[in-house]
């Protein structure tokens, strides 16, 4: 165990030491061949959200890539002495993921499923206290993943999403209404067609309205400052968002 | 010119464990001398697209002969094997020679940005398939290429050559080192994308930096290998900012010479350095952390020396030359 890994046990329940331990594994933000598609602040948001969940239940992620977010979740669950597993689903993860999981000494905690999210979730029969959706971002993909997981989601489960627009992160109420209106008006097209546009914002707002969830206010230490590729206000496939594109929801109590 | 028939005759006459004749191309002045320790005869051609040997980096080994443009027939008729160090330059050259002998290709680097490891183009895959065997210098770079044939042979470091300076006496002691931060990189500025010059540049105003390497406007290379070793031996701290080198040779040499190392946590380096034990690891997006770690070591020379000793032990155990030579000989004989 590295110094930083020991350090995070001394800062129980805090995201920063977990991200510091992760930083030593050589997985660089948005920099292939060993990349995590999340900026450091987004990584902290992911860890913070996971730390709010029961670590004795399984935590799921859809979209493994190189295993970066898997490791962050694994470290977070370990820091809480959790008995659960990290179930990471991706039909085609990068081969380097195996090396990363081994390097992080998480082989006993991480379960890799190299199948589609729909198949993996349909085979699940255990409670899920944390679900991180970072796979295919069409409205229908997000909704079907949620619905497959729904029977197993615990009452206080957190559902996290990556690649939302910054308006989602700030929870701009007017924007939320726009998303919902768009969803309702275009319902048939979104749910039935083969449309592959990325409509993750609309999907998040739809889940909130339809299933009684609300966006969690995640404390972040500092704003993102990684404007290196684009000034887009939402993520587009193949282009990296310079913004904090992470959000999470939880059932309204 | 060599021909296929002579290769077949040579193959039929070859005795097990005899000294082999290996055709190669000048590539790495610090790596190839270690390969020469396998004891075979190496013959190198300098032709279009290949490099020349720079004696400044390392003397040409006695069993390494360099020819320009063409290998004489009396040698080419008895060649046993070809070793390529660059898949895109040396494999086509080897193919062009038309020899019917095995070819080993070494992947020293990671693929260039944009390489799709999950969809290798057919023409490139065919070129790779043509080789008899491939060798990767780390498990990490093997995974980045996405080409599954081949085995990993880690570097070997001559730890008798790359060693700390010692003052001989009833009890050997180490002389004090200069409180400076050594970096070794060629063309550092232009290769910022892979060598992390911007990290160096950010922290340089605040630290006693000592850059070495052929970088116009910044630094000169050491005049020869002995001088380079002396520079390692005299430096308290070594800084590696490289972000895209599977295993930087200079980092291994600095560790072997007992420098306390501060390195970017990238590629295979997290498998070599245990943070806080035999070096410090820093994420490339946090230059301030590199600075803090370097400053800490400069301010605590005894801890730096202890870390340097641990680093040397790690190199001795993980990158020993005997293991390297033995693995290479085993591989070579396995394909003949």
Report what the structure shows.
The complex is a heterodimer of chains A (253) and B (336). With 253 residues, chain A is an alpha/beta fold. Chain A has helices at residues 3-10, 15-23, 40-51, 68-79, 96-103, 117-123, 139-149, 166-169, 173-185, 187-192, 200-211, and strands at residues 28-29, 35-36, 58-62, 86-89, 110-113, 128-133, 153-162, 213-215, 246-251. Chain A has a 7-stranded mixed beta sheet with strand order 5-4-3-6-7-9-8, with helices on both faces. In chain A, strands 1-2 form a two-stranded parallel sheet. In chain A, strand 3, helix 4 (68-79) and strand 4 (86-89) form a beta-alpha-beta unit. The longest helix of chain A is centred in the C-terminal third of the chain and has 13 residues, at 173-185. Chain A is globular, with a radius of gyration of 17 Å. The model of chain A is unreliable at 1-11 and 226-230 (pLDDT under 50). In chain B, helix 4 (90-97) links the parallel strand 4 and strand 5 (103-107). A 7-stranded parallel beta sheet of chain B has the order 3-2-1-4-5-6-7. Chain B has a 5-stranded parallel beta sheet with strand order 9-8-10-11-12, with helices on both faces. The model of chain B has no long low-confidence stretch (mean pLDDT 92). Chain B has helices spanning 4-13, 32-36, 73-76, 90-97, 122-130, 139-145, 192-195, 197-203, 225-234, 249-256, 269-272, 287-299, 301-318, 321-335, and strands spanning 21-24, 41-46, 64-68, 81-84, 103-107, 133-136, 151-152, 178-184, 209-212, 235-240, 260-264, 280-282. Chain B is α/β, with parallel strands linked by helices and 336 residues long. Chain B is built from 14 helices and 12 strands. The chains are: A alpha/beta (253), B alpha/beta (336). The A-B interface holds A 2-4, 23-26, 28-29, 31-34, 40, 92, 94-96, 98-99, 103 and B 110-111, 113, 115, 117-118, 139-140, 143-144, 146, 243, 265-271, 274-277, 281-286.
């Amino acid at each position: 165990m590295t110094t930083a890994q020991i350090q995070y046990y001394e800062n129980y329940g805090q995201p920063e030491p977990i991200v510091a331990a992760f930083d030593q594994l050589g997985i660089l933000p948005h920099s292939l061949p060993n990349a995590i598609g999340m900026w450091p602040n987004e990584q902290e948001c992911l860890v913070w959200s996971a730390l709010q969940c029961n670590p004795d239940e399984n935590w799921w992620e859809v979209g493994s890539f190189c295993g970066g977010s898997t490791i962050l979740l694994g470290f977070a669950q370990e820091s809480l002495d959790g008995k659960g597993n990290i179930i990471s689903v991706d039909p085609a993860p990068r081969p380097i993921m195996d090396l990363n999981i081994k390097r992080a000494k998480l082989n006993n905690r991480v379960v890799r499923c190299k199948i589609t999210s729909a198949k993996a979730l349909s085979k699940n029969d255990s409670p899920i206290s944390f679900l991180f959706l970072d796979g295919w971002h069409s409205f229908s993909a997000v909704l079907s993943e949620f619905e497959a997981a729904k029977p197993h989601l615990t009452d206080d489960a957190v559902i996290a999403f990556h690649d939302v627009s910054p308006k989602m992160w700030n929870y701009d109420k007017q924007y939320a209404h726009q998303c919902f209106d768009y969803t309702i008006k275009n319902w048939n097209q979104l749910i039935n067609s083969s449309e592959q546009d990325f409509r993750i914002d609309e999907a998040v707002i739809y889940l909130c309205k339809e299933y009684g969830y609300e966006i969690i206010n995640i404390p972040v230490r500092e704003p993102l400052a990684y404007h290196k590729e684009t000034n887009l206000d939402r993520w587009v496939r193949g282009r990296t968002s310079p913004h904090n594109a992470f959000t999470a929801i939880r059932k309204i109590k | 010119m060599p021909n296929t028939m002579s290769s077949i005759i040579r193959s039929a006459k070859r005795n097990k464990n005899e000294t082999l004749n290996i055709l190669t191309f000048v590539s790495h002045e610090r790596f190839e001398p270690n390969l020469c320790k396998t004891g075979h005869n190496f013959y190198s051609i300098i032709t279009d697209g290949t490099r020349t040997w720079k004696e400044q980096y390392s003397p040409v080994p006695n069993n390494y002969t360099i020819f320009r443009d063409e290998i004489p027939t009396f040698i080419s008729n008895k060649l046993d094997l070809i070793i390529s160090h660059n898949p895109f330059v040396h494999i086509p050259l080897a193919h062009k020679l038309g020899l019917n002998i095995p070819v080993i290709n070494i992947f020293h680097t990671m693929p260039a940005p944009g390489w799709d490891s999950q969809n290798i183009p057919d023409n490139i895959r065919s070129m790779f398939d043509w080789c008899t065997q491939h060798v990767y210098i780390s498990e990490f770079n093997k995974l980045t290429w996405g080409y599954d044939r081949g085995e990993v042979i880690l570097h070997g470091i001559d730890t008798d050559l790359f060693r700390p300076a010692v003052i001989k006496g009833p009890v050997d002691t180490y002389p004090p080192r200069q409180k400076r931060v050594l970096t070794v990189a060629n063309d550092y500025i232009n290769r910022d994308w892979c060598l992390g010059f911007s990290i160096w540049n950010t922290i340089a105003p605040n630290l006693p930096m000592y850059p070495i390497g052929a970088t116009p406007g910044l630094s000169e290379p050491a005049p020869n290998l002995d001088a380079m070793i002396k520079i390692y031996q005299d430096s308290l701290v070594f800084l590696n900012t490289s972000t895209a080198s599977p295993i930087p040779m200079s980092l291994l040499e600095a560790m072997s010479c007992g420098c306390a190392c501060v390195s970017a946590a990238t590629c295979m380096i997290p498998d070599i350095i245990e943070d806080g034990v035999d070096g410090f690891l820093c994420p490339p997006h946090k230059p301030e952390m590199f600075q803090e770690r370097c400053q800490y070591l400069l301010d605590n020379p005894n801890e730096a020396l202890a870390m340097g000793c641990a680093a040397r032990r790690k190199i001795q155990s993980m990158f020993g030359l005997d293991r390297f030579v033995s693995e290479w000989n085993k591989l070579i004989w396995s394909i003949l």
